[in-house]
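Fig. S4 source data, part A: sequence.
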Amino acid sequence: MSGDPLPLRVAIVCRQPLNRAALAALVAEELQADTIDVASSIPELAAQTPDLLLLDLPPSENPKTWIDGAPKARHRVLVVPERDLSLARLAYAAGFNGLLPETSERPLMIAILKLVLAGGEYFPCFEEASAEGAPILFRQLSQRQREVLSHLTQGQTNKEIAKMLGISIATVKLHVQAILSATGARNRTEVVSRLGQSRL
């Protein structure tokens, strides 16, 4: 049927068997992937071009070598042990679409993956403060997230934002969740307040 979703092929590269199994289960349960290819090294998946690649960064490897050697995919996400701005910059420069900290709660992990699959980016800002002491919270937002944020500052609802940007309400919700996570804000009001204290 023409209304059926396209098949989703996901590839996971991870040296840790437990992490590999956990990522595969998350993708199977939450993204309903049609095909999940798992490997412990990059060369095992070199000939494939999945819709989504999850690359789990091994602690003993040179991050730049691992990131630069990642297989091609429509969407690529780097899985990291903890938030690290330098890794976010490396991944972004290499054409990745997002960063997935292993310390994230499951709902946020799902939101990040769905956001990336919808064409968004997730590179949360990990810097605590600028030299002046004001938080640098908004530099890591994607262009679309900044557009959503602009509408949030005008007090628009998700439905209004979706109509203005020509995207679905669900996609707006994913962008709002990513904005809240990146800024550490608890709600829309707080993110707008923090924007007033920061420089884009």
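Fig. S4 source data, part B ends here. The beta strands are 9-13, 35-39, 52-56, 75-80, 98-101.
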